[in-house]
């Protein structure tokens, strides 16, 4: 279990280091191929950091361009023709409007998915606009290529529209059903009697079937937490130490490792989704991983939907905030009832009272 958690942390650190190397490469002007390849290892926030670093060196924010960035006085421009006010402060980061549009086009294609969760073998290459090329030309080519995909269906429509009408002498006749013939025997079971043997048709089971019970979200989360929490979980919150003592054979240990890997990936994916919403600035990935190492997972506990993973992540964050003051300040900056944490919880259909009930399950566990 410990090695699995360490592997997860090591994998993330490895990809964080790769991302940093790509960022440092883009600080200097590069060609289109390098920028296209970098998209595999960049999230939108990583690319925005590249623009900021290039601006510090007075370079255009678009990594393919080597020109200095322009200086525009003021933050707004008034269009007399459109009678609107436009913010132009972002144009200061680029040498021209062309590079600004090209950079925005590249940024829009970057995936927000964490790098260590991506399938790089099936990565779809992004489009990069060369310096000086009008973005409208690239978008026009993309539109034309999309239209070519529909040529087959358009051809079928054209052919069917040109088909001649059906001949007028064709007459459609409906089938006439004949009157049923009375059976030769009045005995309803005579037809299945063969030399004294009669087939017995099993009687229908008229017993009422029970309706399948379904749990609410509250019931599912409560049941999952009660199932996975152990004495080690309670000791972790009490002493902030991880002591996992499970005596299992090698096959069972490998199965537990697999389940822990699946469960941890789902919770960390939910954390990366929730973190910028709250927002959380303190690094608690190691704390989350250490907490999950204390769980005892069965087959059913790792079969989580995305909504269930998000709720469990909120429970873990709230429970950890009682031990980590910096985290508590992040998610509860004020006593206002309308803070982001409570709004996010309400969007999941839960209340603070229900969250506190979940927290008591994992902090006061004794199974």
TrEMBL record:
EC number per UniProt: 3.1.3.16
Single GO molecular function: zinc ion binding
Keyword Transferase: no
Principal subcellular localisation of the protein: nucleus
Catalytic activity: O-phospho-L-threonyl-[protein] + H2O = L-threonyl-[protein] + phosphate; O-phospho-L-seryl-[protein] + H2O = L-seryl-[protein] + phosphate
UniProt xrefs under InterPro entries: Rtr1/RPAP2, Rtr1/RPAP2_dom, Rtr1/RPAP2_sf
Alphabetically ordered keywords of this record: Hydrolase, Metal-binding, Nucleus, Protein phosphatase, Zinc, Zinc-finger
Coiled coil: none
Subcellular location: Nucleus
Chain ranges of the RTR1-type domain: 37-119
Cellular component terms per the entry's GO annotation: cytoplasm; nucleus
Keyword Acyltransferase: no
Family: Belongs to the RPAP2 family.
Protein's recorded name: RNA polymerase II subunit B1 CTD phosphatase RPAP2 homolog
Natural source organism: Paraglomus brasilianum
Lineage of origin: Eukaryota, Fungi, Fungi incertae sedis, Mucoromycota, Glomeromycotina
């Amino acid at each position: 279990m410990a090695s699995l958690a360490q592997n997860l942390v090591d994998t993330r650190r490895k990809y964080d280091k790769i991302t940093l190397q790509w960022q440092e490469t883009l600080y200097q002007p590069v060609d289109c191929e390098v920028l296209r390849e970098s998209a595999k290892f960049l999230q939108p926030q990583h690319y925005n950091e590249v623009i900021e670093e290039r601006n510090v060196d007075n370079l255009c924010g678009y990594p393919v361009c080597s020109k200095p960035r322009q200086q525009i006085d003021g933050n707004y421009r008034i269009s007399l023709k459109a009678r609107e006010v436009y913010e132009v402060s972002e144009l200061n980061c680029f040498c021209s409007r062309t590079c600004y549009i090209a950079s925005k086009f590249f940024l829009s294609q970057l995936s927000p998915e964490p790098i260590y969760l991506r399938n790089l073998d099936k990565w779809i290459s992004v489009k990069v606009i060369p310096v000086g090329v009008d973005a409208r030309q690239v978008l026009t080519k993309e539109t034309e290529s999309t239209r070519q995909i529909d040529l087959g269906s358009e051809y079928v429509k054209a052919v069917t529209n040109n088909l001649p009408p059906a001949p007028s002498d064709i007459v459609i006749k409906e089938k006439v059903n004949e009157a049923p013939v009375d059976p030769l025997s009045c005995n309803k079971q005579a037809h299945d009697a063969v030399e004294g043997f009669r087939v017995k048709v099993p009687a229908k089971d008229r017993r009422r079937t029970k309706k399948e019970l379904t749990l609410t979200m509250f019931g599912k989360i409560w049941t999952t937490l009660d199932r996975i929490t152990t004495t080690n979980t309670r000791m972790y919150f009490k002493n902030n130490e991880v002591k996992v003592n499970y005596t299992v054979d090698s096959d069972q240990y490998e199965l537990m490792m697999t389940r822990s890997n699946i469960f941890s990936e789902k919770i960390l994916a939910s954390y990366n989704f929730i973190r910028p919403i709250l927002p959380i600035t303190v690094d608690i990935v190691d704390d989350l991983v250490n907490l999950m190492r204390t769980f005892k997972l069965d087959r059913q506990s790792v079969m989580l939907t995305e909504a269930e993973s998000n709720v469990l992540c909120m429970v873990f964050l709230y429970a950890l905030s009682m031990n980590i003051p910096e985290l508590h300040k992040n998610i509860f900056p004020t006593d206002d009832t309308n803070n982001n944490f409570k709004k996010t919880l309400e969007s999941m259909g839960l209340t603070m009272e229900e969250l506190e009930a979940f927290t008591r399950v994992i902090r006061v566990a004794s199974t």
